[in-house]
Amino acid sequence: MREAPIGVFDSGVGGLSVLAEIQRLLPNESLLYVGDCGNIPYGEKTPEFIRQRCSVMADFFVAQGAKAIVVACNTATVAGVADLRRDYPHWPIVGMEPAVKPAAAATRSGVVGVLATTGTLQSAKFAALLDRFATDVQVVTQPCPGLVDLIEAGDLHSPALRALLGGYLEPLLAAGCDTIILGCTHYPFLKPLLRQLIPTDISLIDTGAAVARQLQRLLAERELLAEGPASPAQFWTSGSAQHFGNILPILWNNAGVVRSFSL
Ligand code: DGL
Question: Where in the chain is the domain with CATH 3.40.50.1860?
Answer without folding.
Answer: 6-96+208-260, 100-205
